[in-house]
Amino acid sequence: MTQIRNDWKLEEVEALFALPFNDLLFQAHTIHRDNFDPNQVQVSSLLNIKTGACPEDCSYCSQSSKYDTGLEREKLMEIDLVLEQAKEAKDKGATRFCMGAAWRNPTDKSLDKVIPMIQGVKAMGMETCVTLGMLTQEQAFTLKEAGLDYYNHNLDTSEENYGNVITTRTFQDRLDTLESVQNADINVCSGGILGLGEKQTDRASMLRSLANLEQHPDSVPLNLLVPIPGTPFEKVEPPTESEFIRTIAVARIMMPKSVVRLSAGRTEMGEAMQAMCFFAGANSIFYGEQLLTTDNPDTNTDQELFTKLGINQAQASSH
């Protein structure tokens, strides 16, 4: 029987990170097998519904208005175009459609424009997810009423490292939004990015913050930073392959029933590394050629990888 804990101490998490690699993977894979079909991966698709001009200064992001990354600003996409893309994603096997807008926090007026998109995607029989920045409690209730299934709001990094990455908001702001989402009974999708100049203890601290939420996030996306020219983090040293796989394994052990998603950075990962991530407990990926503004393997490449590894696509979420 898997025990769900929300009282992790930092030294316990650090002890997991310090285990011999094979012991860590064995423990993570055993827990993964107890809670999920080990040969099944859930597929989500992500669409950027509004690009650029974000007032935040996240040091890794091409969409911040603070850096010149050559990205064109765009207005919010028209609903017909969004639904067309959602249908295409569904036809390719995605069971969840995520829509991202580069806002610090949505105004009520902009939220009114996103709601028909949520309803339209839901009407297609797909799960809906949006990431729109910080929310008030009232806005979270509005989204719930619109039928939203998941809200994505990543912690990005540890509380200790947070100020080195972003200065326009605090780590607590992040936690407050997650609390509003959980209060509205919307599933939480929250994870982080590896490669933000953090140390291993920061990765442990970030996972601890996630696992010690009142309820574990339903979805935990773990991203490998894709360094964007023009951002302060364009030359940051990425984590090694084994460090990344370790983080997936520790996340699986700490949040046994959460879906752990291999997110950005997969173009940098070879087959063997992705296979190790799936073994360590990752059981979801993003499909499609672009994640917001960074490249992602195309659908056919993923299909081939699944075939080689004997992985089936989950037809619908287990939640």
Mean pLDDT value: 87
Q: Which regions have little confidence, pLDDT < 50, spanning 5+ residues?
A: 289-294
Largest sheet: 10 strands, parallel
- Give me the secondary-structure category: alpha/beta
Order of SSEs:
HHEHEHEHEHHEEHEHEHEEEHE
Number of strands: 12
Query: Share of helix among residues?
Result: 25-40%
* Gyration radius from CA atoms, angstroms: 18 Å
Count of individual helical segments: 11
Strand coverage percent: 15-25%
- Measured distance between first and last alpha carbons: 19 Å
The best one-word shape is globular
Q: Could you explain how this protein is built, in words?
A:
It is a single chain. This protein has 319 residues and is α/β, with parallel strands linked by helices. The chain has helices at residues 10-17, 21-35, 79-91, 108-123, 137-145, 162-165, 171-183, 200-211, 241-254, 271-280, 299-309; strands at 40-50, 96-101, 127-131, 150-152, 187-189, 192-194, 219-224, 259-262, 282-287, 290-291, 294-295, 312-313. Strand 10 (290-291) and strand 11 form a beta hairpin. Mean pLDDT is 87; it is low at 289-294.
